[in-house]
Amino acid sequence: MNQPTAQHTVFFVSDGTGITAETFGNSILAQFSVKARHVRRPFVDNGEKARQLVREINETGQREGLRPIVFATLVNREVLNVVRQECQGLVLDMFGTFIAPLEDELNIKSNHRVGRFSDIAKSQEYHDRIEAINYSLAHDDGQSAKNLDSADVILVGVSRCGKTPTSLYLAMQHGIKAANYPLIPEDFDRGAMPSLLVPHKKKCFGLTIDPERLAQVRNERRPGSKYADLMNCHYEVREAETMMKKAGISWLSSTHKSIEEIATTILRDIRPDRLMY
Amino acid sequence: MNQPTAQHTVFFVSDGTGITAETFGNSILAQFSVKARHVRRPFVDNGEKARQLVREINETGQREGLRPIVFATLVNREVLNVVRQECQGLVLDMFGTFIAPLEDELNIKSNHRVGRFSDIAKSQEYHDRIEAINYSLAHDDGQSAKNLDSADVILVGVSRCGKTPTSLYLAMQHGIKAANYPLIPEDFDRGAMPSLLVPHKKKCFGLTIDPERLAQVRNERRPGSKYADLMNCHYEVREAETMMKKAGISWLSSTHKSIEEIATTILRDIRPDRLMY
Fold this sequence. Notes:
The structure is a homodimer. By secondary structure, chain A is α/β, with parallel strands linked by helices.
C-alpha cells in the first residue's frame, strides 16, 4: 500500500523539548528520498497529553491513508505505555531500543529522568556556553581587540564569508570562545596580516568563499556597490587566500559547507582537546 | 566485571560531523548515573580512518579494562563493515537499527548518503537560518526598532535575563527572526510598555528571572553598581512582571531553564506553525 511518492507525516514526540528526537529522526529520514510533513510535539509529559497526541496521530493516519512515522524519545513510563498500546503509527522508540543493552553493559538500571536540557541548565558546561556566546558577540567583526588572549579560536576572512554565524555556533554548541576578525582592503594594501593577530596565529582559522557567491551575498546587502562588485570580490578573496597561505593559517571554503560542518572541522584542527570531555 | 562506579569511555563516531551521534548518545547517557569520558570522532569516511579509529577504541578498552561504548551514525558501508567486524566496544548502531524498519514501511531502499549537514547547506531552510541570525544580531537589545514588522518573535524582559542567547538560538536552530527588547527603569517610571512594542504585542514573549540570580549575573558585569544591586534587581523584576501581566504577554522564568527549553516553549506558544514544516 505504501508508495514512495505519497507523503508521510512524521511525528517527533518527546516528554522534553523533542530536539533529540528531531535531530536524530531527520538524520535517518535524510537516508530516504521521500518528502514528509514534519510535526514536532514537545513536553508530552502526562497520560492526558499522551492520549490527545495519540488521537492526533491516529486521525492523521486515517485521514491520509498512510501510517504516520513516530520518532519518540520518551522517558515517562505512563506516556510511553499510552503510546505503545494505542498508537497506530510506526513507533520508533529511540530510547527504549538502546537503553536495555546499556543497562546490561553498565550493570545498572536507567533512572527514567525526563528532560536532559533542564539538567544542563544547572551545569558548569551550560554556564560556559552562555559566557562563550557573550564573548563571541563582544568580539564579532573585530569590534574589540581586547581579550583576544582568552579566545579559543579567531576566525579570519573577508567580510560576509560566514565568520559570524560560525563563531556564534561554536559558542552556542561547543562553549568555544570564538572571536572573528575581518580581512579588509587596507590589510591587502599593506600585504601583511593585521598586527593584532600575529601573536595569536596558532588559534587563527581562515574562512574563504567562492567569489561569485560572495558577490551575490554582498549584493543583497549593498546592491551595486564596489564592495559587492564581482571583480572586487575576486580580488579580495585572492588576496585573503594568499595572505593566509603566507601566514600558514589553515582555512576552508564555506561555499558548500554548513556551519555545523565548518565548526566541526575547526574543532578538529584547532582544538582537538574539545572533542574529548 | 562492570562496576557502576568505574568510568567508561564513550565514543561518538560518524562519517559526518558526529553531532547527531552526540546529541542522541548524550540523551541516552543522561538516563544513567554514570560518569563517562566522551570522545567525538567526526569525518570517519574511509576504511583507513575506520581501522585507525577501531584500533583507538580497542586499545582504550584494553587499557581501561572496560569495554568502551560506541554510539555510531555511519552511512558509509566500508566504514560500517570495519566497525562491525573489528570493534570490541559495545557498538550502538543508531542508523542501522532504525533504517531497516523504515525501509519496510516506506517500501523503498535507503540511499546511504553521508552528511546530512552538507545537504542542508544548499537548502532554502539553511539560507533562512543564516538570514534569521543576521536579523537577530541586528535587532539585539533593542538596537534597531526598524523592521520589527518582520520579526517572528520579540523577546522582552529586564537586562541580563537571557534574551540574547535565546533569540540567537531561535534563529540558529529554528530559523526564527527573533528580535529582543529590554525593559528598562524608564519604562517602569512611565508605567507602560515601550510604545514601539504595542503594535506587536501578539508576537511578544517575556522572560523573567529570579532576582538573586539576576544580581549575581549583573555583578559579574558591573560589580557593586546600582544596576547589580539586589534591591534594584527585585524592583526591576517585579515591575517587569507587573507590566507583562497587564499587557497580557506570556512569559516564563529563565532561572532553571536551558535556552533549548525556553526556545521550544516560545515556539509552542507563539509560533505553533513552526512546529510543523
